[in-house]
Amino acid sequence: MMTATNTQLAALVGSQLASSRNLHPTQQWLAAFMDTQKSTTPLPALTQTASFRLLSSDITTTLSADAPNCLPLDIHNPEVKERRLLGPLVLQLLGIEDMSKSRWEQVEAIEALERGEGTKGREIIRVTSTAGDEDSGTPVNRSGGPHKLSLQDARGTKLFGIELQEIKGVGLGMSIGCKFVLKNAVVARGVVLMEPANSTILGGKIEAWHKAWKENRKVELKAAIEVNV
How far is CA 196 from CA 22, 144, 164, in A? Predict the structure, then answer.
C-alpha cells in the first residue's frame, strides 16, 4: 500500500517517464513499482530504474492502452490508403527481417551473431557486447537493409514497419522486445514507413522473446529453404 509520500513520488516518476521517454505506465504498474522502492531514493534514480524495467517489459501489461498512446483501432482498414500518426507512440519489436538478404544469408547472419561475430565488409570480426549496446538494441551487423519490422503497441495491435531510410541501431542483431517511439510517421495501407526523422529507438530487451525468436526464425527460414529446393 502506497503512502501519501509514495503517491506523490509515483506521480513525479510517471511525469518524468512521460516527458523524457514518452513512456506512460499504468497506475497499477507504478504503484507496484513504488512498493519495491525506498521513499528516500532520489527521483532521478527512481525514474532511471523505472525506465529500465519498462523497457525490459511487455508493454501490453505495463503501459497505458488509452487511445492517445496506441495505434488507431482501424489501422489495417484497406480503404485508408494513407494516414499520419502524430504520436508519440511507443511500440515494441516482435521480429525483424533483412529484405536485402536471401533466406540462407539470414540464417548465416543469425548464426554469426550467436557466435559473437559481426561483419566488416567481407571480413568476419569478433564483437564484444557492452551494456550500452544491449540497452540501445544496437546491432553488431548493420550491413544490408532495408529491414521489415514486426511491431506491437500497448493495446496489443500489431503492424509491420518498413525502413525507408537507414535507422541507426536497426539490424538483425537488435534485441527482440526493443522499444521504439514513432512520431509523425506515415502509415500506408497498414504499414508504417520508418526513417530517422520519425523513428527513435529507446532500447530494451525481453530475453525470453529474443531467445525464442532466434530459435524459431532459424527453423522457419530453413524450412522455407527446404521447400524451395
Answer: 17, 17, 9
Tens-digit pLDDT profile for residues 189-224: 899 999 999 999 999 999 999 999 988 887 887 787
Q: b/e map of 124-147 (b: 16 or more CB within 10 Å)?
A: eeebeeeeebebbbbbbbbbbbbb
Q: Amino acid identity of 191?
A: V
CA distance 23 to 14: 8
Q: If you count DSSP H runs as helices and E runs as strands, how many of each does the chain have, helices first? A: 7, 10
pLDDT of residue 109 exceeding 90: no
Phi, psi at 128, each rounded to 5°: -105, 120
C-alpha cell at 123: 571480413
Which of these, 195, 177, 167, 188, lies nearest to 55 by C-alpha position?
A: 177
CA 106 to CA 103: how far, in whole Å? Answer: 5
Average pLDDT, the chain: 85
pTM of the model: 0.82
Helix axes 27-35, 4-21, angle to 10 degrees: 120
The angle at the Cα of 91, spanning 151 to 47, to the nearest 5 degrees, equals 150
Per-residue cell: 29? 504498474
The residues facing 182 across adjacent strands are 89, 199
| Tens-digit pLDDT profile for residues 32-73 | 999 998 888 899 999 999 999 999 999 999 999 998 899 999
